[in-house]
Design a protein that fits this description.
By secondary structure, the protein is α/β, with parallel strands linked by helices. It is built from 22 helices and 21 strands. Helix 11 packs across helix 13. The longest helix is centred in the first third of the chain and has 37 residues. The termini are far apart.
Length: about 750
């Protein structure tokens, strides 16, 4: 009975709610709709906030910079992105096939480029990218060996209004038999989307491909998978590139102008808000912020009240003069998040002040950008002047120096941008032998610190000073032998005795490159240090192979006919321990620019200036053996082996490109100067004109590959204390060096 009463009560309550809703809410809604039809002036719909006629009641039309259409909400943007890129959650663990890079019988990380069709139009920038990959040590022409694939179709400009836009991309890439929904593929892109919103839509489904893209938004960036690259122009150099503009010891660190910007102003559309407001911080004195609306075909039809004044002010200042003389450079977003101003500021040592909210900075996975740029907020533009004024001189100098390091290491050429992209992906694939952030953000940069050599900083020659370390007090002598052993009085026998007497010598390795078979161990004299003879296979470059037997950090490279004293060896080694990242030795040469031939020249004349120290008698770090064998392209090593010449010049090119410093020459005896042999004897190879001409050609070939001339001239020669001073010889430690 009690239960029945409860159910009856609940039923009555439900009926009451229905009646209340019908007579209260439903009738009122119907009456409201009826009144709206009869008296439209009683209830007005919400205004369209992009309706310029409506907004003109509250603001002048010239001040309205709203974009066409209703702005997308963050949720709408994410939905749009998800619809375009269905694999937006890709990571290396889920969308990359590691097995392609770790198969037996293959040399790990190899990159294959799909062949382009004859009818394909390839832009200059994409041609440079493909050339950089094809000339790198990772390139393979066999797709079966590839770990990574790059499209031969130009994907840099995906703006549908561009003349370089390639249509029907989905159909074309699906025709690749190895596409596999984009797995293990790398797609390069500089421009995406089109007017008016410039979304990040590439116009085709990239699937599970890695995206190396400029102007990447942090919302769409897939961490640990995609790679953000800088926006660069078609005139960006293929190789080398210009050096940064920061002069060594430039003091004071501040320049004439505190802050500057000079560029386009967009009257409407995306990116217009930030650039339209830049005139507010311009004072014409230490802050120069100039914009112009004189761009595009119909700029006069759309110009506002400020255009004429801005254009006049714009012409008063030269852009290059501002770059050279400004401490900070504004880098506001354009139509897209990235801007050419970014690389221009880095090169000019003008500290970039970024106004591009949401921009994933280039190579952000490895570069610590807070050490080189100042990130502002587009919404807080008026705070920028006070922010940069508060930066102290020490901080300014540190930021400027960091811009130069990053520019030279990663951004000065297309080669470096592409190789940095590949190295970042390679570090992800082989994470157990990857670089740490210190290597990426310290000189000479991640491209020249090969993790295959070691993952310990103390094993590299350029980190000793920063770590407060010194090299070990032992060296390994590597002697290059090309003559058959027929007598115990040959120069190599005397050289072995001289070197082995050094208290710093740990072992001696002879690289046997003679036409005759190497002699047995009994033919060599007994010595106080271990002696190893290895087969050089008649390759000149074998003297620079990373021999496993070399256990010391220092290597003394010697020719078989080198004439030295033990004291000379000891002194040169002590000098090298103070400069472990450079070549330290005796015989020197120089290069010069020949304006008549428009080419580089090579000279062996004894002058007060030099740029090369020959490796016939020189110390250097063993890491350069690894760089020589694994960093330089095979084509250069083949050239050296074919001519049996120039290996010493190539090693000097390599070391100077790493350090940006000259080698170091130490004191030597006068009799060491190369002289022609007596009549009736076979002349040395260096004495022939053909040998000299080959070296001239080598200098130009090497400079062409590096993209610039890395050799640096010097007039420094380091002598022992009291060298040739008129004092008692008993006070001199290296008195034998003064004998003629």
């Amino acid at each position: 009975m009690q239960a029945r009463k409860k159910y009856v009560l609940l039923g009555l309550c439900a009926c009451c709610w229905v009646l209340l809703f019908y007579w209260g809410g439903g009738v009122q809604l119907r009456l409201l709709r009826l009144l709206v039809r009869q008296r439209g002036d009683l209830v007005r719909p919400w205004p369209n906030w992009t309706d310029r006629a409506f907004l003109s009641r509250y603001a002048h039309l010239d001040d309205l910079q709203t974009e066409t259409g209703i702005a997308e909400s963050p949720r709408q943007r994410r939905q749009t992105w998800s619809a375009i890129y269905k694999d937006s959650r890709c990571r290396m663990e889920t969308c990359f096939d590691f097995s392609r890079c770790r198969r037996k019988g293959r040399e790990g990380f190899r990159v294959y480029i799909y062949p382009s069709e004859k009818t394909d139009r390839v832009s200059e920038s994409y041609r440079k990218i493909l050339a950089s990959i094809a000339e790198s040590r990772y390139y393979t022409s066999d797709p079966r060996e590839a770990c990574l694939f790059v499209l031969g179709i130009d994907t840099l400009d995906r703006d549908q209004l561009s003349g370089q836009f390639v249509p029907n991309m989905d159909d074309r890439i699906r025709g690749y038999p190895l596409w596999n929904d984009g797995r293990n593929h790398l797609i390069f892109n500089l421009y995406s989307g089109t007017w008016p919103n410039y979304t990040e839509d590439l116009g085709f489904n990239i699937g599970q491909a890695i995206l190396a893209k400029a102007s990447l938004n942090t919302e769409h960036f897939r961490p640990g998978f995609d790679v953000s690259i800088p926006l660069f122009s078609k005139d960006h150099p293929q190789k080398g590139g210009e050096r940064g503009w920061l002069v060594r010891n430039s003091t004071p660190p501040r320049r004439k102008y505190l802050l500057m910007f000079k560029g386009k102003r967009y009257l409407t559309g995306i990116g217009s808000d930030t650039r339209n407001a830049l005139h507010h911080i311009h004072n014409g004195k230490d802050i120069v912020s100039l914009t112009t609306c004189r761009h595009g075909k119909d700029w006069e039809k759309h110009k506002d009240a400020r255009c004429d004044h801005d254009n006049l002010e714009y012409e008063r200042f030269d852009y290059q003069e501002l770059l050279h003389n400004s401490t900070f450079c504004l880098v506001p977003r354009g139509r897209r998040l990235g801007s050419f101003r970014f690389l221009e500021s880095l090169q000019a040592a003008c500290i970039p002040v970024l106004l591009s909210n949401g921009w994933e900075l280039p190579f952000s996975d490895v570069i610590q950008w807070n050490q080189a740029v100042i990130e502002g907020d587009e919404r807080l533009l008026l705070q920028v002047p006070s922010t940069v004024r508060a930066v102290g001189n020490a901080r300014v100098l540190a930021l400027r120096q960091r811009t130069q390091m990053l520019w030279d290491a990663y951004f000065s050429s297309v080669d470096k941008i592409v190789l940095t992209t590949l190295e970042i992906i390679k570090d992800r694939v082989f994470s157990h032998t990857s670089r740490n952030k210190f290597m990426w953000n310290s000189l000479p940069g991640g491209l020249l610190a090969l993790p295959e050599y070691s993952s310990h900083l103390e094993h590299f020659p350029f980190y000793y000073l920063g770590l407060g370390l010194s090299p070990s007090q032992e060296f390994t002598a590597v002697i290059h032998a090309v003559s058959p052993l027929v007598s115990q009085s040959q120069p190599i026998m005397k050289l072995l005795q001289v070197v082995s007497k050094s208290k710093y010598c740990s072992q001696i390795i002879i690289v046997w490159n003679s036409e005759k078979p190497q002699p047995s161990r009994s033919k060599w004299p007994p010595m106080p240090v271990p002696l190893t003879v290895t087969d050089g296979r008649r390759k000149t470059t074998s003297r620079f192979l990373p021999h496993v037997a070399i256990e010391t950090e220092a290597v003394l490279s010697l020719d078989e006919d080198t004439v030295l004293l033990t004291s000379e060896v000891n002194f040169a080694f002590l000098v090298w321990r103070s400069f472990p990242d450079r070549i330290v030795g005796y015989p020197s040469r120089s290069h010069f620019w020949d304006p008549l031939r428009h080419a580089w020249g090579y000279t062996s004349k004894w002058t007060n200036e030099y740029s090369i120290v020959l490796t016939g008698a020189a110390f250097y770090h063993r890491y350069y053996h690894h760089l020589f064998s694994h960093y330089l392209p095979q084509s250069l090593r083949i050239l050296v082996d074919r001519t049996s010449n120039c290996e010493d010049i190539l090693m000097n090119f390599l070391v100077s490109s790493v350090t940006h410093l000259p080698p170091i020459k130490v004191a030597q005896r006068k009799q060491y100067k190369e002289l022609p042999g007596p009549q009736g004897t076979k002349s040395a190879p260096w004495a022939s004109s053909e040998h000299f001409n080959q070296r001239q050609e080598c200098v130009n070939t090497f400079a062409s590959w590096f993209g610039y001339m890395p050799l640096v001239h010097s007039q420094l020669r380091l002598d022992p204390v009291l060298f040739k001073d008129q004092v008692s010889v008993f006070r001199k430690k290296y008195k034998d060096l003064e004998r003629i």
